[in-house]
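CORE FACILITY INTAKE
Project code: CF-77B
Contact: R.S. (postdoc)
Sample description: multi-component assembly, two entities in total
Requested service: structural model of the whole complex
Turnaround: standard
Below are the sequence entries exactly as provided by the requester. Do not edit them.
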Amino acid sequence: MTEKTNSTITKNTIITFFKERPWAQYILFGVLLSSIAFLPQIGVMRNSTMSIFALIIIYTIAAFGLNLLLGFSALISLATAGFIGGGALGIGIFLNMGLPFEVAVLLVILSGIVIGAFIGILSLKSQGIYLAITTLFVQEILRQIYTSVGIFGGERIDIGTITILGGIELNRFNFAHRSIIFLILIAVMVIIMIIFRNLIKSRSGRAFMAMSRSKSAAAAMGVNIMKYRVYAFIIATVFAMLAGVLYAMYYQSAPTRAWTLDLSLLLLAMVVAGGFKSVFGMFLGAFVVYGIPTLFLEDIFGDVSEIFAGLLIILVVLFYPQGLIHSGPDIKKGFKKIVGLFRKKEVTQDE
Amino acid sequence: MSKNTVLKIDDVVMRFGGLTAVDHLNLEIKEGEIVGLIGPNGAGKTTVFNCITQFYDSYEGSITFNNEDGETIDLKSKKVTEIIDLGLVRTFQNIELIPDLSIIDNVMIGAHNQFKTGLVQHLLSTPKVRKEEKRIYDKALDVLAFMNMSDLKDQMVHGQPYGILKKVEVARTLMSDPRLIILDEPAAGLNDSETDELETLIYKIRDEYNASILLIEHDMGFVMNICDRIAAINFGKNIATDTPAKIQAHPNVQEAYLGKGDDE
């Protein structure tokens, strides 16, 4: 009896520990996800499956930026894919120039800040559907630039082995190295989760919400709307370009044709399906919108899997318009019901 | 012992195209005073508020504000977002809150201008950020306790009854260490007991926060009760500015509300 109470007490302390410290939740999540890096090593999982998870993580990171725009600032961007591409191709160019990896990353982040500020200033002139059209054409211009400007190498920029921290070489054709890169991806995602939550729980996070929910109140309370709009676009662009850097790191090559409007829309679907304003929802959204169709549906339905992927997303949006992350209580209820049924049976048997 | 002036509206004219919404208006508010601005619908009351808080900055004439050090500031030289720094803060006729934030987070937005930390520090959640956040949070707790709303602090604004929403807006103004609070129809939509509660609250705010109050209100009983002075306007023009009793008896005010009394 005492043992049981003791274990409930420890269980409760663990739960409160994680409830009070969201960063610990993200780290725990990262640690759990890290197990995927070892599965191909022991032959339980194919390397290609790990690559799908790598893309899910990359999309998750870009989705955080879009979430800040859509969920918190009521701004829209259809150019996310273009920025991911910018990050991937940008780091490719910088690395081929012979710059150290860390310097190249820094340069990509800096260009992300400049481009984000530029888009943010553009956004000051347009609202809602007009902003969507503006960013749609930013996306198309970027796609055109990537495919037709010479420095992007036509089809792709080959990067090859990446040297980080001045000496550690990582090559994707070495499976152990690939797992290490996968772990780096997870680490970056966990960091992004933590700083995203820091941001939204801060004065800046409240300012983003104030400017999108009530312009007059924001102005009267001293929130400079122009400033925060530009901030939102800077962060969204930097996140997307970081996602691009990770893409280039994992695949060690940056294609020019992959960064289409289709991908931008897919990212939009991830944010909506996962849940506006949610942290774990971004991973969930990327998993449902990209992961489930590629991991499971393609095997079952083959060529027509996209139809099912589409249907799945429509169902999610219909039944969980706030995002799948809010399906938690329903799942819990269903689970409790099932457990309850079994328990009842046990009790009756005991009697 | 004449008290210091807080706000002075001097010969202000505001035009929208061919329409003159505010027409050579004058009004002065002194420290610790509760002043009501009344007038029929469309008389330009909210336009006056928008001119004071620089939502409209194309008015003619001058609106000046005296800060605590006795300096006179021409409000036109300030941007709309800088007005709150002076301790001049307002509420809105239609509630302007953030529905998907908790009540205390909404109140904390009233202290937006008191933060010293910036975006990058917020991303990293530095110790300084956490200290500052705690300080503002505690201040918001005090304000909510003052408003008798402590138990509601973590509830979402969305779905709260109207009376609570109105109170949250007032609580938000208190975060700015206000010198002058401008209330746009604070009693609209409140029931009788809520209106009585609001009356006590406004006195309490004046006394404990040493704030002056300017309010627009259609509930005449409430206005007559609470205000030290009332300014009646119609078509943007001053009709009369006087004590409640005299305003009530003023023939021009009665005319503005009821029309001319000649039944020929």
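Facility notes:
- Residues 26-260 of chain A form one domain.
- The mean pLDDT of chain A is 88.
Invoice: internal transfer
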